[in-house]
Amino acid sequence: MLVLPSxxxxxxxxxxxxxxxxxxxxHRDPQxxxxxxxxxxxxxxxxxVLLECRRAALSEGKSFSVKALPASLATLAGLYGVQExxxxx
Length: 89
What we know:
This protein is of the alpha/beta class. The protein has three helices and five strands. It has helices spanning 10-26, 44-59, 71-80, and strands at 2-3, 7-8, 31-35, 41-42, 63-67. The strands form two sheets. Strands 1-3-5 form a three-stranded parallel beta sheet. A two-stranded parallel sheet has the order 2-4. Helix 1 (10-26) packs parallel to helix 2. It is globular. InterPro entries: MlaB-like_STAS, STAS_dom, STAS_dom_sf.
């Protein structure tokens, strides 16, 4: 399982994505779960990071899900029409 930081805004997006992609390369399980439970400060960049991580996981033949997605981020995903791309773990 990969874990998101407590803050994921535009300012942290590149570093967070790099960390997730490095973790993905080391991850041997066929299912990738990203834990978003620590997120307290975020913007739409958090969705972009999760979607790019999903794309990378699927390109490596892994399934992808998100654990503990904050309700407000789930609402934002719904507004952008991408909630089905971020299934709950």
